[in-house]
Amino acid sequence: MAERPEDLNLPNAVITRIIKEALPDGVNVSKEARRAISQAASVFVLYATSCANNFAMKAKRKTLNAGDVLAAMEEMEFERFLEPLREALEVYKKGQKGKKEVSEQKRKDKEKKADSENDKSREDEEEEEEERMEEEPEAENEAEEEEVEN
Amino acid sequence: MNMSQNNPDKDDQTSSSKKNISLPISRVRLIMKSSPDVSSINQDALFLTTKATELFVQHLAMSSFNNGAGKETNSLSYSDLAHTAEETETFHFLTDILPKKILARDYLKSLEQMQEEDADF
């Protein structure tokens, strides 16, 4: 269960990375815009869930399945997502199968690394956050410098 | 095109499934479960919703940037997003959380007007 309201937010570092990858290089995304996109993404999840749940209920099923989510996308008029979603699901299913075969071997390796890596990735996210916060003041500085030159 | 997907070696599989989605599935499940009438979600549905959310973030950012005022200045701002929510049919469901900003001056003016109209009665 979600115990705190911020549990219903998606991680800012990941959202920011997705935005940056989608936009052309060098586009400056304001902090306010990033927060708004992140909130929009949470609302999107809820909206999609509610639509998908309607399809499951119509079919008298209690468990949401892949078909329900795809039907929800159509209903929400995000047909453009259907093809990439189907492709991703196929790759994901193959990956799941492959994982089972190699999991025994890999799990042993991972368990050793797990603790140290968890700490590392957390640090990385925090670093990213700091970097981004610094970006905006930088832009302001540039503007100031221009004024001085003039 | 499908060559790499059909015949991946073991290392490719793990790295591609990692690359496949970057948002945490557990967090998406938490948001989905916060909806009161959802009882259970199977793994594929969870994966698809997570992937769809990533596509949505890309799509929202791209459309807002391409139709926004910041294209010349190479920036994406809140008002570009609010504009997209209002103007694009598929993003209409976002208007509640992406309200257009108005100046306090304009808001006070409209308040005054409303009061005047009330006084007429």
UniProtKB/TrEMBL annotation, chain A:
Keywords: Acetylation, Coiled coil, DNA-binding, Nucleus, Phosphoprotein. The keyword Coiled coil applies. Residues 93-123 have a biased composition (Basic and acidic residues). Residues 124-150 have a biased composition (Acidic residues). One of its GO terms (biological process) is heterochromatin formation. One of its GO terms (cellular component) is CHRAC. InterPro entries: CBFA_NFYB_domain (IPR003958), DNA_Pol-Epsilon_Subunit (IPR051377), Histone-fold (IPR009072). It is found in: Nucleus. Residues 9-73 form the Transcription factor CBF/NF-Y/archaeal histone domain. SUPFAM superfamilies: Histone-fold. GO terms for molecular function: chromatin DNA binding; protein heterodimerization activity. Residues 93-150 are annotated as: Disordered. It comes from the Eukaryota. Component of the DNA polymerase epsilon complex consisting of four subunits: the catalytic subunit POLE and the accessory subunits POLE2, POLE3 and POLE4. Interaction with POLE4 is a prerequisite for further binding with POLE and POLE2. Heterodimer with CHRAC1; binds to DNA. Component of the CHRAC ISWI chromatin remodeling complex at least composed of SMARCA5/SNF2H, BAZ1A/ACF1, CHRAC1 and POLE3; the complex preferentially binds DNA through the CHRAC1-POLE3 heterodimer and possesses ATP-dependent nucleosome-remodeling activity. Accessory component of the DNA polymerase epsilon complex. Participates in DNA repair and in chromosomal DNA replication. Forms a complex with CHRAC1 and binds naked DNA, which is then incorporated into chromatin, aided by the nucleosome-remodeling activity of ISWI/SNF2H and ACF1. Does not enhance nucleosome sliding activity of the ACF-5 ISWI chromatin remodeling complex. This is DNA polymerase epsilon subunit 3. It comes from Sparus aurata (Gilthead sea bream). The lineage of its organism: Eukaryota, Metazoa, Chordata, Craniata, Vertebrata.
From TrEMBL, chain B:
It is found in: Nucleus. InterPro entries: CBFA_NFYB_domain (IPR003958), Histone-fold (IPR009072), Transcr_DNA_Rep_Reg (IPR050568). It comes from the Eukaryota. One of its GO terms (biological process) is chromatin remodeling. Residues 22-64 form the Transcription factor CBF/NF-Y/archaeal histone domain. It holds the Pfam family CBFD_NFYB_HMF. Residues 1-21 are annotated as: Disordered. CDD domains: HFD_CHRAC1-like. SUPFAM superfamilies: Histone-fold. Keywords: Acetylation, Coiled coil, DNA-binding, Nucleotidyltransferase, Nucleus, Phosphoprotein, Transferase. GO terms for molecular function: DNA binding; nucleotidyltransferase activity; protein heterodimerization activity. GO terms for cellular component: CHRAC. PANTHER family: CHROMATIN ACCESSIBILITY COMPLEX PROTEIN 1, HISTONE-LIKE TRANSCRIPTION FACTOR CCAAT-RELATED. Heterodimer with POLE3; binds to DNA. Component of the CHRAC ISWI chromatin remodeling complex at least composed of SMARCA5/SNF2H, BAZ1A/ACF1, CHRAC1 and POLE3; the complex preferentially binds DNA through the CHRAC1-POLE3 heterodimer and possesses ATP-dependent nucleosome-remodeling activity. Within the complex, the heterodimer with POLE3 interacts with SMARCA5/SNF2H; the interaction is direct and enhances nucleosome sliding activity by the SMARCA5/SNF2H and BAZ1A/ACF1 interaction. Within the complex, the heterodimer with POLE3 interacts with BAZ1A/ACF1; the interactions are direct. Forms a complex with DNA polymerase epsilon subunit POLE3 and binds naked DNA, which is then incorporated into chromatin, aided by the nucleosome remodeling activity of ISWI/SNF2H and ACF1. Does not enhance nucleosome sliding activity of the ACF-5 ISWI chromatin remodeling complex. This is Chromatin accessibility complex protein 1. It comes from Sparus aurata.
